Structure formats: structure tokens, C-alpha cells
Amino acid sequence: MRAWLLDSLDGIEKLRLAETAPPPCAPGEVLLRLHFAALNPADAFLAQAMYPAKPALPHVLGRDGVGEVVAVGEGVAEPRVGETVGVLRCDAGVERWGTLAELVTVPANSVAPVPEGWSLEEMAAAPLTFLTAWQALTQWSDPPAPPEPGSTLLVTGASGGVGVAAVLLARSMGLRVAGLSRSAEKGARLLHLGADFVFDPGDSDLRRKVAAALSPAKVDLAVDSVAGPLFNQLVAMLGNRGRISVVGRSAGAVPEFNTGTLFFRRNRIGGVSVGSYSRPEAQAAWKEIVIRLRSIDRRPVIDRVFAFEQVKAGFARLAESPMGKVVIRVNG
Ligand SMILES: NC(=O)c1ccc[n+]([C@@H]2O[C@H](COP(=O)([O-])OP(=O)(O)OC[C@H]3O[C@@H](n4cnc5c(N)ncnc54)[C@H](OP(=O)(O)O)[C@@H]3O)[C@@H](O)[C@H]2O)c1
Prior knowledge:
Order of helices and strands: EEEHEEEEHHEHEHEHEHEEHEHE
Bound molecules: NADP nicotinamide-adenine-dinucleotide phosphate
CATH class of the largest domain: Alpha Beta
Number of strands: 15
Shape: globular
Distance between the termini: 14 Å
CATH topology of the largest domain: Quinone Oxidoreductase, Chain A, domain 1
Radius of gyration: 20 Å
Number of domains: 2
């Protein structure tokens, strides 16, 4: 099979398209012939040794994808050979070879059918970011559950993969959503997708504008994939018992964070890790996601589809912060 091999953790520029043996299909696994894969920032982080996993080399990146089942391992009853399925976040592209290849093996219980009415590209694009957004939105209840309808949500990096997913899911939950984007054009698209308000995170008057829009409420929950200096402003915008789900840190470390800012409104900060979902948890969350997207008649947002030979151009596009997912056409 053809695969993009990562020989060393020196960045995606060093990826090499090569002919290599397909991965063996072990008991409990399925072998997929991929139609499409999708890129995530974590692929590039792993390639630069900026991710906890340090897989054996050479490695194949890619955590999202959709393909046809061409073989099943011992003990696998579902899915069957010939079915087309998408990959839910598992160890593919992390500890084992991933979806930037013509063939991939994944655990049989880490795949899901393509939802009715979705394109293959949409199925390839959605699972990792939507599962992440789902965890960020539901993790504050035990058992996990969406916030009360009418609660207020602030989403940073709202035009990104996780951000768009959070906006759409929040819409389906009846939340009041404020999104942050540095781009007026992407901001307009976010309003169309379902955000109630959009603000520029660089606006020196950001706190006052968000407060005025949400008044008399304050921010109940923030989903943050940006961090950096913006993080202290997020804390300041929280209401009583307001929470922040920490997803990423696209703008780097938080400077001079003062834990005292959390005291008086009993604010809480909690990490999100999509990789911490067990396979049954990921399946259950994915079913909810699909139902909720159908309820608002929305599907995943795609920026562009690149040819398999153009994976590096796809990563370059992802680094430009497009609105929607960057997808790779692998076969056909
Ligand atoms: N914890 C987890 O389990 C988990 C899962 C998935 C992703 N992540 C992480 O979450 C982060 C976002 O992932 P993603 O897939 O949504 O990435 P993405 O598609 O690249 O989107 C990130 C968005 O953040 C905004 N942004 C980027 N740099 C910024 C900056 N310096 N200041 C303000 N805004 C900035 C951009 O929006 P505008 O240009 O519109 O401002 C961009 O579209 C990544 O770091 C990723 O690794 C974590």
C-alpha cells in the first residue's frame, strides 16, 4: 500500500510517500481501504515530538478517516466486509499506524456507519473534533450531560475544528452561544451556523462587549482551545460557578495566571482529553452527536479536500486556521 511515512519526529515536512506492507489485521480488528482521511493539529504536534505519544518509527499519522471494510479479524461479527464506516478516535495515528495510508487497521468497535445524508468526506472529517467538543460540553455533570438549555457558552477558536463542533452541538442543546474569531469573514459564517454573537478576541473592549451581549447572565461555560493571554480574560468573564473546559493552547502558555481569580465565584477549570474516552463511551457519545446534528439539520463543515499526494499542502492549509476541516482524498 501507499502510505505517508514519518521516519523521525522532525515535523511534517519530513513525511515521505512510500510503498509499504499493509498492517496485519489482528483478532478484534478490521482492515479498511480508506476513501478519505482528515487532518488534525495533533498530527503535526506528534510529528514534532510535541505530543505525549511517541510511537515506534516509521509511523503513519492520521486519526480520522472513512473507508470500506476489506477484511475482518478473528471474532469480528460487525462491521462486515463491504460496509463503509468511519473511524472514531482510537489509537490509530497515535500508537498504531493511522489513516494517511491506503489501508488502516482499527478496533472493530472503534468504527461507526456513515450517518444518513452525510457525504464520505463529512464522515471522515467529524469524529475527533465532535467527540472533543462533546466531552468539553458535557464533562461537568456526573454522569456527563449537556448544560441546561438557556445557559451561556463562550467558544474560543470558534471557527476551528473543535470550535465549529462546539457551536453546532451547543445550538442543538439550546445554549446561548458567543464565539470568538479573529476573522470578520469567519465570524459571519459562525453566526450563520448558529452562534448568537461573535467577537474578535483581540478587541480591547472584549470583556465589556461580551458582558453587554449576555447581560444579565455571565458566561456559564467556556470551551477554550486557544489559551495564551486570552485565558485570563475568560476567567474574568465567568459567572458564579462558571467553568472552563480546556481543550487546547493554540496561542501558547497562559502568562501570569493568578489562582486567586477563581476563589470568589467558585470557578472551575477542567482538562479535556478525547483520547480518554473508552470505546463504548466514544460510541455512545457519537450516537448522541449524530442525533443532535440531525435535530438542527446541520452536518460537519469542510474547508477543502486535497489529493493524497498533497498531504503536506493540506497540513499547510490547516496551519492557516481555515474554517472547517481539511480532508485528504486517499482512494477514489
Ligand atoms: N484536548 C483534546 O482532546 C483535543 C482534541 C482536539 C483538538 N485539541 C487541540 O485544540 C486546539 C484546536 O484544535 P482544532 O482542531 O479546533 O484546530 P484548528 O482547526 O486549527 O482551529 C483553531 C482555531 O483557533 C483560532 N486560533 C488559532 N491561533 C490563535 C491565536 N493565536 N489566538 C486566537 N485564536 C487562535 C483560529 O480561529 P480564528 O482564526 O477564527 O481566530 C483557529 O481556527 C489544537 O491545539 C488541538 O491540538 C485538543
